[in-house]
Amino acid sequence: MSRTTDPVGHWEDLETWLSVTTYSLLPKAAETLRHQTQDQLDDDIANLMKQDPSQSYSHKELAKITGSLSHTLIATLKLSDRHAAHLQQELTRAQRRVEQLELEAQERQEGHEEVEQGAEEEITRLKETLATAIQEMERGKADHADLSSKLQYAEQLLEKAKADFRDKNGRIKALETHLDESRNEISRLTLQLDYIKEKSDSIREELRHAYELRPEPTRTRRAPVSPLPSRTGSPVPLLTREQKGEGAVLKHSPTPSEEPYLTTKLRELAPASHRASHGLDLKDLDKLARNIGKFTPSVPGSQDVQAYLQDIDFHLEMRLNVTDKDRLYLLRTTASPDVRSFLDRQPAYTKADYHLLREALIKEFADPESEQGLVAALETRQGRQESPQAYYSRLRR
User: Fold this and answer.
1) 326 C-beta neighbours (distance < 10 Å), count
2) Please, which residues have CB within 8 angstroms of residue 136's CB and are 6 or more apart in sequence?
3) What are the start-end ranges of the H helices in the chain?
4) SS3 state of residue 240
5) How many angstroms separate the CA atoms of 309 and 362, rounded?
6) Which of 206, 279, 291, 300 is the most buried (most CB within 10 A)?
7) Which residue ranges are recorded for the region named Disordered (predicted)?
8) For residue 239, which phi and psi values (nearest 5 degrees)?
9) Phi first, then psi: what are they for 179, rounded to 5°?
10) Residue 198 CA: distances (Å) to CA of 8, 201, 279
11) What pairs with residue 239 in β-bridges?
């Protein structure tokens, strides 16, 4: 068989000869492999290579395997030759293009040497600029890493400071609450002490007035023995009239053992209007306080300040000679610690005038959803340096 100059044609002749020799075993092997791709041919070769070479095969099986392998290899070689011929054509065209470009470059080189020199200088300058920019970028990365580590450390310190602040703030609030309770208790005890002192002064005044109103006997006689003898055993001192028409006065002050008995007796002699001018008894005020609902503005659903003050006025309107101290005592007894703290912060002239104190309570604890509260809230603006907590606290007030 003669060898052709075309490699693809050579393989086709070999394929024809192989098809003739293997037609009895593989009648359409060449036609089957003609349209397969390189990947499919590689899969066929891989499947053939999976046959165990150490296994005994018959001559027919060996001929079939050998024929299939030969057809597959020839098909692979044909594809390779076609691809090589295509690459050769591409290479030829590329070489021609390169030669053409070289000629054009040679023609241009003669007229553009100065331009190329300027371009080289520009390239050199750009390279230097690029190197400088790279160095700056590296320094920027190092600075960024340093700042990131410092920022992370600062954030850790900030979190620790926040935790310490929350802890100290909680302690401060607890101490403030305890301090407010102590102040309220002191204020309550102070009011009770003032009330007791006032009652004591009133009793002493009534006692002195009763002694002054008691008539002096016309002649000296032995004084009757007191039902409550004194610790010294002395009788009640006698009364003398210094001038005619004047009230009687004591020669001596009553002893401590005589004071309870004289107080009881002289209260019966004192006018009722004189006793009533000193307000209600502490027992009556406590009884009224039990009938008045506790005013707690911080608890949702609690009564508003208007209803609370009306409730106090309702319980006091049937009482005679009610003083501002009585009203203040009821306010402190029936109000929450926050309200009592607000009352303690008021100036003395406000505490002395119940109407001023009432207006201050309404202004402080009025319902923010009412018309007046809405207008006040809309007119309230947050200061430039004011924290949100202070602004909300001021807005609530």
Assistant:
1) 23
2) none
3) 7-21, 29-34, 38-49, 59-111, 113-213, 259-269, 272-276, 282-291, 305-316, 324-334, 337-344, 348-352, 354-365, 371-379, 388-396
4) strand
5) 9
6) 279
7) 215-259
8) -105, 140
9) -65, -40
10) 133, 5, 10
11) 250
Cβ 298 vs Cβ 354: under 8 Å: no
- C-alpha to C-alpha distance for 293 and 333, rounded to whole angstroms: 10
Residue 249 host element (H or E): strand 249-250
Largest CA distance in the chain: 184
Contact 354, 324 (CB under 8 A): yes
Rg (CA), the chain: 59
User: What DSSP letter does each residue of 13-68 carry, written as one string?
Assistant: HHHHHHHHHTTTT-TTHHHHHHT--HHHHHHHHHHHHTS-TTS---HHHHHHHHHH
Angle, alpha carbons 305-188-208 (nearest 5°): 115
Per-residue pLDDT of the chain (397 residues; tens, 9 = 90+): 444 455 555 566 555 555 555 544 455 555 555 555 666 667 666 666 666 666 665 555 556 566 666 766 777 777 787 788 888 888 999 989 898 888 888 877 776 676 777 778 889 889 999 999 999 899 888 988 888 888 888 888 888 888 888 888 888 988 888 898 889 889 889 998 988 988 888 888 888 878 777 766 554 444 444 443 433 343 434 444 343 333 333 334 444 444 444 444 444 443 333 333 456 888 888 888 888 888 888 777 677 888 889 988 888 888 888 888 888 888 888 988 888 888 888 888 888 888 898 899 888 887 655 544 555 556 666 677 777 767 666 666 5
Give the rounded distance of the alpha carbon of 50 from its chain centre.
71
One-letter amino acid at 183 equals R
**Are 250 and 240 spatial neighbours (Cβ–Cβ below 8 Å)?**
no
At 229, list the tokens: 């003898």
Give the Cα separation of 118 and 121 in Å (integer). Answer: 5
The total number of residues shown for the chain amounts to 397
Pairwise CA distance, residues 73 & 68, whole Å: 9
At 278, which amino acid appears? H
First-to-last C-alpha distance (Å) of the chain: 116
**C-beta separation of 322 from 181 below 8 A:** no
